[in-house]
Amino acid sequence: MVHTIATLRAQMDAMLSAWSLTKNDTILNVLPLHHVHGMINCVMSPLYAGGTVVMMNKFDAEQVLKIIIYFLLLNIY
């Protein structure tokens, strides 16, 4: 599917509203970036809100726990 700037912005605006994302949010994304949920909802939307996204090279449960504690994360997708 081809997205335009308008469709991307509409999706990000919807996510900001649905998830109440703000510049104070930090999201740990463990989803693949080749899928709309991983890229738009979990990366682009938090950044669009001014927040922070933490990425991992590969999933590692022990590392996830360390990241959660370090950043005091409440949002993990």
State the CATH architecture: 3-Layer(aba) Sandwich
Q: What's the story with the biggest beta sheet?
A: 3 strands, parallel
Going across the major beta sheet, what is the strand order? Answer: 2-1-3
How many domains? The number is 1
Shape: flat
CATH class: Alpha Beta
The secondary-structure element order is HEHEHE
CATH topology: Rossmann fold
Mean pLDDT: 90
The helicity comes to 40-55%
Q: What distance separates the N and C termini?
A: 22 Å
Strand content range = 5-15%
Q: How many β-strands, per DSSP?
A: 3
Low-confidence segments: none
Computed over alpha carbons, the radius of gyration is 13 Å
Contiguous helical run count: 3
The SS-based structural class is: alpha/beta
Write the layout of secondary structure elements.
Layout: H1 5-19, E1 26-29, H2 36-48, E2 52-55, H3 61-71, E3 75-76
Parallel strand pairs: 1-2, 1-3
Describe the 3D structure.
The protein is of the alpha/beta class and 77 residues long. The protein has one domain (5-76): Rossmann fold, CATH 3.40.50. Helix content is 51%, strand content 13%. The protein contains three helices and three strands, in the order αβαβαβ. Helix 1 crosses helix 2. It starts with a helix and ends with a strand. The model has no long low-confidence stretch (mean pLDDT 90).
